[in-house]
C-alpha cells in the first residue's frame, strides 16, 4: 500500500511541474491549480488507505493431547509427588484401623540395595467397607524404593483383616532407616492404626559387612494358666517365649527359672533354633504347681542364649494363686 501512495504522489508532482512550465518560467502559479492538485493527492491517499483492506488477524488454536490421570492399580507406584503429612483428626468413622501382626522385625539387618517384603496385617475397625479407592500413602522417613502411594489392593469389610505388603529396598549407605506409611480415605483424610492413628512402619539396619553379626534382638513372654481360675490341687502354667532375630542365625538356648529365692536353675535339655532370616520363633515350657503351704509363691522363667554367644534376657513372673499370675 505504501508504494502505491508514493507512486500517485510522484504523478501529481509531475502534473504540477508540467502546468507550471506551460505558464512560463516567470509566471506566477495559479493558486487554484495547486489547490486542485493537493486535493487530488489527498483523495488518492484516502482511497489507497480505505480501498485496500487490512489482512484479518490470524488466530492459531493449538489442540494439545488430552491429559488423563492414570488409573491407580493395586500396589503399583504412582507419580512421585510428596503428599502432605497431615495428621489432622479423621472426621469420618471410616478411618479406624488396628495392627494385628507384621513381618520383618524392627532392626532387621540387610545388605545395601537389597529388596525385601514388609507385610502388616491390618484390621478394619470402622463401620465402613474399604474399597480400592482407599490408598496406602508414604508418610515420612525413608521411602526405600517404594511408590509414594498405592491403591488398596482389595475390598475390606468392617471387622475384617487383610495383609498389606510392600516390596521395599534397603538404602545404599550403612545406617538405621525407618519408612512410615498411612492409609487414606477417598476424601483425602489420612489415618493410621490404634487410638492415636499412628503410622505403621518398617525399620531396618543396613550393614555392608560381608559377615554381619546377627543376634536375637528381643524376647517376648506370655503365660497361659490351665485352668484359668480356681484353686485346684494341680495347675499347669505354660510360659511362651517369642524370640526375634535380626537376620539368619542358629542359636542354642535354655530356660532359667527361679522361685523367689537367690537360687536359680538352668533347665535342660537345651533347645536349638535356626533362623533363616530376620524373623520370630516361639518356644514354650510347662510348669505344674501343687497347692502347698505357701500359695501365692512367686515364680519366674527367662531365656538364656548359650551359643554362639551368652546372653540372659529379662524374666516373666507368675505365681500359684487362685486365677492370678
What keyword list fits this structure?
Immunoglobulin-like, 6-stranded mixed beta sheet, 325 residues, 3 domains, 17 strands, 5-stranded antiparallel beta sheet, mainly beta, single chain, flat
Notes on the structure:
The protein has 325 residues and is mainly β. It folds into 3 domains: 2-51; 97-206, Immunoglobulin-like, CATH 2.60.40; 216-319, Sandwich (Immunoglobulin-like). 13% of the residues lie in helices and 39% in strands. It is built from 2 helices and 17 strands. The strands form 4 sheets. Strands 2, 4, 5, 7, 8 and 9 form a 6-stranded mixed β-sheet that branches. The protein is flat and about 60 Å long. The protein starts with a helix and ends in a 6-residue tail after the last strand. 20% of the residues are buried.
Q: How many strand elements?
A: 17
**For the residues shown, what is the average pLDDT?**
79
Structural class: mainly beta
Q: Helix segment count?
A: 2
Could you give a quick summary of the protein structure above?
The chain is built from two helices and 17 strands.
How is the topology of this model organized?
Blueprint: H1 2-23, H2 31-51, E1 97-102, E2 108-110, E3 115-124, E4 135-141, E5 149-151, E6 161-169, E7 175-184, E8 190-191, E9 200-206, E10 216-226, E11 234-245, E12 249-258, E13 264-266, E14 271-275, E15 280-290, E16 298-307, E17 311-319
Parallel strand pairs: 2-9
Antiparallel strand pairs: 1-3, 3-6, 4-5, 4-7, 7-8, 7-9, 10-11, 11-15, 12-13, 12-14, 12-16, 16-17
Helix pairs in contact: 1-2
Amino acid at each position: 500500500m505504501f508504494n502505491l501512495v508514493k507512486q500517485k504522489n510522484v504523478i501529481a508532482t509531475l502534473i504540477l511541474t508540467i502546468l507550471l512550465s506551460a505558464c512560463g518560467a516567470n509566471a506566477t502559479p495559479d493558486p487554484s491549480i495547486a489547490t486542485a492538485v493537493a486535493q487530488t493527492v489527498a483523495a488518492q491517499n484516502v482511497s489507497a488507505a480505505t480501498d485496500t483492506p487490512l489482512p484479518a488477524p490470524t488466530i492459531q488454536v493449538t489442540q494439545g493431547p488430552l491429559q488423563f490421570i492414570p488409573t491407580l492399580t493395586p500396589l503399583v507406584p504412582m507419580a512421585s509427588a510428596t503428599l502432605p503429612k497431615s495428621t489432622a483428626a479423621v472426621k469420618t468413622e471410616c478411618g479406624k484401623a488396628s495392627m494385628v501382626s507384621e513381618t520383618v522385625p524392627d532392626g532387621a539387618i540387610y545388605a545395601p540395595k537389597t529388596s525385601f517384603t514388609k507385610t502388616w496385617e491390618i484390621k478394619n475397625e470402622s463401620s465402613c467397607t474399604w474399597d480400592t479407592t482407599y490408598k496406602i500413602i508414604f508418610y515420612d522417613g525413608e521411602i526405600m524404593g517404594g511408590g509414594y502411594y498405592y491403591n488398596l489392593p482389595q475390598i475390606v469389610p468392617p471387622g475384617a483383616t487383610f495383609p498389606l505388603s510392600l516390596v521395599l529396598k534397603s538404602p545404599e549407605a550403612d545406617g538405621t532407616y525407618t519408612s512410615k506409611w498411612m492409609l487414606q480415605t477417598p476424601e483425602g483424610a489420612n489415618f493410621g492404626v490404634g487410638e492415636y492413628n499412628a503410622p505403621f512402619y518398617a525399620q531396618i539396619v543396613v550393614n555392608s559387612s560381608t559377615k554381619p553379626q546377627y543376634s536375637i534382638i528381643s524376647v517376648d513372654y506370655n503365660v497361659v494358666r490351665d485352668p484359668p481360675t480356681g484353686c485346684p490341687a494341680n495347675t499347669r502354667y505354660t510360659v511362651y517365649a517369642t524370640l526375634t532375630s535380626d537376620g539368619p542365625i542358629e542359636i542354642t538356648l535354655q530356660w532359667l527359672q527361679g522361685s523367689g529365692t537367690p537360687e536359680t536353675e538352668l533347665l535342660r535339655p537345651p533347645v536349638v533354633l535356626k533362623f533363616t532370616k530376620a524373623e520370630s520363633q516361639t518356644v514354650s515350657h510347662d510348669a505344674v504347681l501343687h497347692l502347698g503351704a505357701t500359695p501365692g509363691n512367686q515364680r519366674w522363667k527367662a531365656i538364656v542364649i548359650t551359643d554362639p554367644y551368652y546372653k540372659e534376657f529379662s524374666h516373666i513372673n507368675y505365681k500359684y494363686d487362685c486365677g492370678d499370675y
